[in-house]
Design goal:
Layout (H helix, E strand, L loop, with lengths): L2 E4 L3 E7 L2 H6 L7 E3 L2 H8 L4 E7 L1 H11 L4 E4 L6 H12 L3 E2 L11 E7 L5 E6 L13 H5 L3 E5 L6 H13 L3 E4 L3 H6 L1 H10 L3 E5 H8 L4 H11 L2 E5 L5 E5 L2 E5 L13 H14 L4 H15 L11
Amino acid sequence: MKILGIGNAIVDVLCKVDDKFLLKNNLVKSTMKLLDEKEFRNLIQKLVIQETISGGSVANSIVGLSQLGNEVGFIGKVNKDDLGEKYEHGLRKEKVNYMYTKKKEITPTGTCLILITPDSERTMCTFLGIAGKISEKDVNEEMVKQSEITFLEGYLWDEVDAKNAFVKAINYSNKVAMSLSDLFCVERHKKEFLELVKNRLDIVFANEQEILSLIDGSSIKDAINFSKEINKNVIITRGAEGAIAVKDNKVFKCEAKNNLNLVDLTGAGDLFASGYLHGIINNLSLEQSLDYGTNLSSKIIQQMGARIKNN
């Protein structure tokens, strides 16, 4: 395989809400909050469900790569329940090699409530369920060795077993790419993430907010200087300001697309990573890779959910 993704296998439940709903339920817009099962059930009762889609950050990226014609696989843990069956079917339908064998578990398949406000921003409330129980035993080292790039998500660092799976994958990988995932995720694990970024990863995806938090920086210039110093391929998405990639002490830029009909920002970063990694594994230039990423992220934010339809 070109790329093997390892991440939280989460079923996305899309719901439209207003800003008052976020305030009333103590939610911070554009971030991800972890819920326990009781909190999750309490919150979902207050919502009107628009759509249910197989999701998870890295899984979304892997599907995007498959849609671009790349041979890819995914490891993520689901229960052998109704949502788990739907999850696996959703990946196989997109021609992703799903490399986990479901078992009947006590803990249900993970679910993420994606709350979309009128400004198209998304706020996520995640009940990890069995997804957070992925462990070293679920990571096949031969599969990792046979992939050009292993793609991981920062969210895995939230659970001890998942963190161990993450470290095992790094140890057997030819090349490692990782998304920092979320501002709060970075703040929870800043010291360990900084160590990973400096010493264990080859390709790093972050938005401007995330990387500035990671390095305690105050400007994009700080982020660029840091990226040059560590001598990795660091990609920073900046919303309306476009995106930049830093590699070999050089900075490459790509402008954002204009006049888009914003519907839902869910998956913008995930699909940007799809496009960029597509460029890397197909030996395109960094400018072309950035352009692929920008095109895919522009496409996804003009529809509901994080899977491109009618591709």
